[in-house]
Design brief:
97 residues; mainly alpha; elongated
């Protein structure tokens, strides 16, 4: 090996000197990436709904189990009620960070 030969990570470091330009596509990609990274939160929305309903409607959602609460939401057709607001709020918030 030559003393002047660069390792792959050293070549990458030279190419990435300086900040990335803040163009419209940069912000678009950051927003899309942030929104996708918060998608786990969207999937957990029904569990959050059960928790809130257990606090507000204890007769309809007794604290015996989250599974029973999920079944109640499913039977009422409310599994993902409010998920659009959650997606917009968390997607925007995470995308802008």
């Amino acid at each position: 090996h030559s003393h002047h030969e660069q390792l792959p990570h050293q070549k990458h470091q030279q190419q990435q000197q300086g900040p990335l330009p803040h163009t419209a596509s940069y912000y678009r990609n950051c927003t899309i990436g942030g929104a996708l990274s918060s998608s786990l939160r969207w999937l957990l929305n029904p569990i959050d709904s059960v928790k809130c309903n257990m606090q507000v409607h204890p007769k309809e959602f007794p604290s015996k189990s989250v599974t029973a609460g999920l079944q109640t939401l499913y039977n009422q057709g409310r599994m993902y009620r409010g998920v659009t607001a959650t997606m917009l709020a968390y997607g925007h918030q995470t995308g802008m960070k």
